[in-house]
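Incident log, structure service

09:12 report received: a user says their structure output differs between two submissions of the same chain.
09:20 pulled the input from the user's history:
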Amino acid sequence: MNIKFKNSIKRGLLVTILTSVTIVNAQVGIGTNTPDASAALEVRSTTKGLLLPRLTNAQINTISNPAEGLIIYCIDCAPKGVYVYDGISFKSLLDNTAVDNSPSALVLSQIGNEADNPDVVNSVVTVAQLGMITPALLGIVASNQTDYQNYIDSNPDNFSVPATTSEVQAMINAVNGFGQVTGAGGAIWLDRNLGASRVATSTSDADAYGDLYQWGRNTDGHQSRTSNTATGPVASGNEGSNFIIGSNNWLNAKDNTRWNGTTKGIHDPCPSGFRVPTSAEWLTERDAWSTQDADGGFSSPLKLPITGFRASSTGEVRSFIRRGFYWSSIQSGNSGPEALELIEGVNFSQIANPLFASGQPVRCIKE
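09:34 re-ran on a clean worker, output below:
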């Protein structure tokens, strides 16, 4: 290539650049030779737009020391769209909501991105990650992890971006093969306790016992039968994932509204579309049983096992072979929270008042 030809190419490139980008008194114009005097940068086009950096929720989380005013487009946030950093967090231009960096939101975003069509991104979501999603998902089975991943890859149309809790719950239901049952009066219930891996086969079926919740708490890790303990009571927000022991109430300031009747609040551990039942709803079920005891509860469509409980004094899991409780969302004045009490072999059951800090099972009813 001779020198004249090289120079000709260089001049052509320079002309191309100058005709597309014009700098006037430290102003930059793209597609214009006369950028507006008030603009440091003006882009003009009648056929094309301005494309911002497109990041996932997780990628936004990795930006180090973002400058105030930094603009990005989030492809899997809720809502999806343009976000601006205001010095504290990235806020949506649509509704001013901040990017949700909670573990739950990040897992839902991951699942939404994995459910692509065509299947380019294979799902690697783990059962541990599914356990981070709130409201709590029901019936996660560790041995089904590969099946959950395969379902996401095979059913992209079943998931939004980000995925929703109801979509993920539907996946778990489909893989596990469990769902809902109709109780007395047409009420719809989940067919097993929160944390249980299957429908009970007897009143003493350990695989159907599920988790043990302190009254008014969400799924935060404390409900595991082997979770760590901490001495309380504690202020709301300081409980972490510990089972709080040493007091009748795990809270230092009594709060009767955390599970609030038929109004589902942010502390309700049931999956989307379900809530903790009221004591009246429990009595409606009990009154329809063939016998109003633990045997009647198991013979009913709900298949209730006697799960044992966790002591508020020590955190020890204790097993009452003949007696058990199921939380309601009702708190009755000075008597404490209400629960359905079952007694095996005796034609008797009632609404009783376990301690706030005791650990009892939860069975969810449809909202």
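09:41 both user submissions now match this output. Likely a transient worker issue. Closing.
09:42 reviewer note: The helical segments are 3-20, 57-60, 103-114, 127-130, 145-154, 165-176, 279-287, 294-299. The longest helix spans residues 3-20.
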